[in-house]
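Retro notes, item 3 of 5
We never archived the inputs for the adenosine-5'-diphosphate complex last cycle. Fixing that now. Sequence and ligand:
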Amino acid sequence: MEPIIEIKNLTHIYSPNTPFEQKALDNINLTIYQGEYLGIIGRTGSGKSTLIQHLNGLIQPTAGQVLFEGQDIWSSKDLTHNIRFQVGLVFQYPEYQLFEETVYKDISFGPRNMKLDEQEVDRRVRRAAEFAGISDEILQRSPFELSGGQKRRVAIAGVIAMEPKVLILDEPTAGLDPAGSASILANIEAYRQANQATIIIVSHSMEDVARLTDRMAVVSHGTLPYVGTPKEVFSHGEALESLGLGVPTMNRVFSRIRSMGVDIDPAVYTVEQAKAAFLSAYRRKEGL
Ligand code: ADP
Ligand code: MG
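Structure as it came back at the time:
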């Protein structure tokens, strides 16, 4: 697999040399591959938002580098300027950042900044609206008349309209009901498949992240103690719990059974996996 983003020895200190100095990232290394779906999890304040803001050049490293397709994104003004079109970032609660008088204008803001011609801007706005589940009749409405969930879709469409190679979403389902969350996650999956895009999703829901992603990175106190497939990460279930993460129920139950001395695979996080792990332990015990 080809790397698309390489994070090398990245440290971020807010307000350095002041009484408010805060080290938010501490010498992080991580390679993100072309086309992968990466989940980022961690408690509030662990450094997740700081980390993803580095990936599209929104903030500058105190030390270390972020490479996009092999080039340091801070090595030239052009690269730093263009990175935000290639790596699209949807902030947490992006609906508060809508500002244009129509939904259409809001979604077209990004592609317009890319200096594309009118026809291409129009094509992208309509395609992005479709991916984000926004119907044509909504395009001419004011974003301020929409429901919270619809506004969130408009904000996501605005980033998708730039057709970024990497799409990063910070808690895209925060505050939505289960049906709304599922629908937004399905929209993201549709974009990923249609564009072979790399997706990075920050979520407090380990269940969602485990179900959706190829790999997970756990952020804790500005470091990445665990990075791997969901199965690999959940083999450290007890450690994750002690970091204050709400691990999936099945993982918690199986970690507990394992620590009671039962020979069972603790790297489970769905009911289906739990059933398989239980049956295999049972067969082993019975010599079947
Ligand atoms: P998360 O997204 O995981 O909740 P953040 O990256 O927002 O974590 O924050 C990591 C740490 O950096 C926290 O201690 C937070 O208080 C601090 N921090 C975040 N943004 C700023 C800022 N703009 N100025 C100073 N400190 C900040
Ligand atoms: Mg955050």
